[in-house]
């Protein structure tokens, strides 16, 4: 006979997940691999001649880039002689300020940084993340996509997402040639919801850069770096070419960050017998050396790999901490679903939500997951109420706010109408009143009428051949009578000139004031320090629609 209890357990969602035993020889190990290199550094005449047990003549392209660009050599030999456990203690110790730690951690080598992180448990890593993130105020980013690439729905969803509190928004495409319309719809819709939202369209790198240059996006992050030479070469890139691309964005006032994450090298078959965390450490160091302000990491689209091995979710948290140790902005993942278990999904998210990061999700799906073209998010539009209750339960600021149905409907409707007017003024394929109505009340793309995709794609291709920029969008909105939205987008374009939002961890408020690691430094040093919700913000978090008051019982 079979145990009925085990029969029930086998049917639980968690047992639909895939799990693997460690296999260090192929890189299927999250942390503490016996095959990882040992920390070392030797410096002669200001040049690193040995890095983590490897002589300079044996360096690969990543070793060379990291040795020449990523390590503060001033204190490197002294720091490398410190006990890794001592550095781990300092990361957790509330009496050691972040500034003092950054002077140490920027002089570590990749192997030494991993050795430090290996000394810490999940609670200690969360404590370190609380103290080490660059910006004091935590924030959040979302995905706004749909399987039909319907620009009207994207605009409405973006407006709602802004209302709900997302400071950054990202879209992508089902059909690559739809990118311009998706980018424009996101830019317009998000800034109808709240002035100052930074938006991006994640597509092939050359197109993504072109969209940014035209002023259709405000930032980029899908510029991937990898931890082994072969995987980098497979992507037709080097650390130097990625650094050049980053400078191209910065030269036009576009915020950007690199993307990496544990598991990518294993997934691509070239982990070189190293742990996932060690290879991710190399990615973090490449990002630092390239002069980029931040990194989207936390395994990202490879989360199923670390999620399958022991200590994998701990390794994901560790890579977020390491990014902060390098004084970089961290958009800490949580963006791709990895488990059938709601318990696992929530536990993975709390690792970043409780300590807070620059962007807790990168991003949270502001659409139902069937519309998420980033392969589904760890949390989606159907989890909004759960997330707001978690904030309320724990008194944790996860970056979102409860909203009322009537304000959402009003904002979605306005965003759809603004886009309708814009398309008319710019001679794009018309948006019907039926589409506006559907987008106002839709749950997702299943509720939307179909558009003529052939006409849309042709218009997108024609648009990219012209010299049309964000300035023409502003003029068209002004002509259509939407002065407020035109003024908002003009404010966004002005940021491209000032470049204030290129500072580490920058977000923009509705008055176009930039909040970053420069003017909103994380100063956490224990209880009653660092970020704390204002009374106004706490009232907002508490005031969920389903909460009853005494008057409700009278």
TrEMBL record:
All copies of the Diol/glycerol dehydratase large subunit domain together span 1-552
Tell me the InterPro entries matching this sequence: Cbl-dep_enz_cat, Diol/glycerol_deHase_lsu_sf, Diol/glycerol_deHydtase_lsu
Positions of transmembrane segments: none
- Which GO MF terms are attached to this record? cobalamin binding; hydro-lyase activity
Highest taxon in the source lineage = Bacteria
Tell me which Pfam families the record gives.
Answer: Dehydratase_LU
Q: Which NCBIfam families match?
A: PRK15444.1
Supply the name of the protein. Answer: Propanediol/glycerol family dehydratase large subunit
Which lineage?
A: Bacteria, Bacillati, Bacillota, Clostridia, Eubacteriales
């Amino acid at each position: 006979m079979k145990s009925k209890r085990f029969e029930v357990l086998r049917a639980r969602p968690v047992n639909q997940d895939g799990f693997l035993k460690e296999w260090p020889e192929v890189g299927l190990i999250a942390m503490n691999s016996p095959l990882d290199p040992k920390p070392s550094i030797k410096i002669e005449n200001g040049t690193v001649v040995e890095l983590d047990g490897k002589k300079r003549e044996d360096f690969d392209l990543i070793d060379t880039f990291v040795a020449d660009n990523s390590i503060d050599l001033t204190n490197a030999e002294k720091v490398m002689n410190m006990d890794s456990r001592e550095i781990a203690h300092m990361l957790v110790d509330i009496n050691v300020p972040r500034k003092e730690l950054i002077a140490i951690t920027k002089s570590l080598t990749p192997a030494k940084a991993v050795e430090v992180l290996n000394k810490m448990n999940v609670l200690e890593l969360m404590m370190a993340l609380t103290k080490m993130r660059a910006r004091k105020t935590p924030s959040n980013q979302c995905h706004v996509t749909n399987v039909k690439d319907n620009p009207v729905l994207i605009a409405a969803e973006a407006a709602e997402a802004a209302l709900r509190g997302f400071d950054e928004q990202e879209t992508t495409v089902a059909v690559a040639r739809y990118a311009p319309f998706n980018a424009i719809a996101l830019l317009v819709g998000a800034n109808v919801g709240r002035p100052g939202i930074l938006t991006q369209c994640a597509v092939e790198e050359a197109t993504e850069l072109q969209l940014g240059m035209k002023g259709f996006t405000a930032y980029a992050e899908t510029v991937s770096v990898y931890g082994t030479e072969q995987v980098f070469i497979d992507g037709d890139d080097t650390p130097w070419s990625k650094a050049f691309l980053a400078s191209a964005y910065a030269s036009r006032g576009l915020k950007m960050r690199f993307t990496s994450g544990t598991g990518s090298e294993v997934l691509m078959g070239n982990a070189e017998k190293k742990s996932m965390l060690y290879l991710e450490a190399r990615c973090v160091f490449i990002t630092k050396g390239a002069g980029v302000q931040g990194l989207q990491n936390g395994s990202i689209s490879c989360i199923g790999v670390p999620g399958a091995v022991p200590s994998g979710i701990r390794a994901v948290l560790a890579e977020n901490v390491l990014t902060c140790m390098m004084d970089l902005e961290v958009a800490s993942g949580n963006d791709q679903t990895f488990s059938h278990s709601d318990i696992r999904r929530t536990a993975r998210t709390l690792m970043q939500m409780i300590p807070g990061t620059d962007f807790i999700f990168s991003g949270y799906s502001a659409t139902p997951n069937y519309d998420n073209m980033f392969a589904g998010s760890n949390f989606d539009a159907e989890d909004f109420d759960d997330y707001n209750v978690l904030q309320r339960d724990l008194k944790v600021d996860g970056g979102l706010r409860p909203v009322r149905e009537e304000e959402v409907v009003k904002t979605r409707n306005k965003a759809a109408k603004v886009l309708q007017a814009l398309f008319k003024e710019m001679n794009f394929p018309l948006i019907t009143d039926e589409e506006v109505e559907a987008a106002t009340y839709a749950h997702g793309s299943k509720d939307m009428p179909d558009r003529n995709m052939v006409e849309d794609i042709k218009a997108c291709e024609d648009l990219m051949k012209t010299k049309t920029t964000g300035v023409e969008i502003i003029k068209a909105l002004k002509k259509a009578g939407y002065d407020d939205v035109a003024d908002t987008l003009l404010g966004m374009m002005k940021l491209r000139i000032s470049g204030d939002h290129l500072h580490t961890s920058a977000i923009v408020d509705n008055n176009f004031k930039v909040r970053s690691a420069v003017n909103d430094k994380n100063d956490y040093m224990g209880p009653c320090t660092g970020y704390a919700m204002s009374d106004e913000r706490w009232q907002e978090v508490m005031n969920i629609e389903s909460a009853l008051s005494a008057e409700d019982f009278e």
